[in-house]
């Protein structure tokens, strides 16, 4: 979703529709968070699925969060400028008053932006956690030599066989 679309939604007072459209992504993040908090033992496939879902949810919510954050700045500055026009000469107290009015008028928009931004951060943190858990599982499998999916050691390159022969009983210089 583009920032222009998000701005139109906000200006048409359809922010509830935006929340409703994104509810499935909020639910995905919340459900995985519950599983992480609950201490469920997750398999490698569960973790890969979690990573895939979190990346998808983050990808969908991130542009909306960014658009809402930029709208907060835009609208706040516009409200400040409108308020400053009311004063013939601007004193420091007047500037502070204008900033307070601007912040007050965009408080709902700031809340919306915060909701989306926090869900994006939650998804990012969950992806990092999942990556760590997957890495740990891969290392443990390698140590146990069970279903290891990483690089295999190249023993013959680092440590040639003691008799000087490689595969099939031939010396490297005879091949």
List the helices and strands and how they pair.
Blueprint: H1 3-11, H2 15-37, H3 44-84, H4 92-105, H5 107-144, H6 155-158
Report on the architecture of this protein:
Helix 1 (3-11) packs across helix 3 (44-84) and helix 3 packs across helix 4. This protein has one domain (3-174). The model has no long low-confidence stretch (mean pLDDT 83). It is elongated, with a radius of gyration of 28 Å. It has 6 helices and no strands. The chain has helices at residues 3-11, 15-37, 44-84, 92-105, 107-144, 155-158. The protein has 175 residues and is mainly alpha-helical.
Cα Rg: 28 Å
Percent in strands: under 5%
Biggest β-sheet description: none
Q: Please give the number of β-strands.
A: 0
A few lines on this structure:
The protein is an all-alpha fold and 175 residues long. The chain is 74% helix and 0% strand. The protein has one domain.
What would the keywords be for this entry?
175 residues
């Amino acid at each position: 979703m583009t920032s222009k679309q998000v701005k139109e939604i906000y200006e048409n007072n359809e922010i509830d529709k935006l929340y409703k459209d994104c509810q499935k992504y909020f639910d995905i993040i919340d459900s995985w968070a519950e599983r992480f908090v609950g201490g469920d033992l997750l398999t490698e496939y569960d973790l890969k699925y979690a990573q895939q879902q979190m990346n998808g949810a983050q990808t969908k919510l991130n542009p909306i969060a960014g658009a809402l954050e930029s709208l907060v700045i835009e609208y706040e500055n516009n409200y400040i400028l409108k308020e400053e026009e009311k004063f013939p000469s601007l004193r420091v107290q007047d500037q502070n008053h204008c900033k307070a009015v601007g912040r007050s008028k965009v408080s709902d928009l700031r809340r919306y932006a915060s909701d989306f931004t926090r869900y994006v951060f939650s998804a990012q943190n969950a992806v990092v956690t999942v990556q760590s858990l997957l890495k740990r599982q891969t290392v443990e499998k390698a140590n146990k030599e069970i279903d290891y999916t990483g690089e295999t050691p190249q023993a013959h390159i680092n440590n040639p066989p003691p008799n000087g022969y490689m595969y099939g009983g031939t010396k490297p210089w005879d091949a």
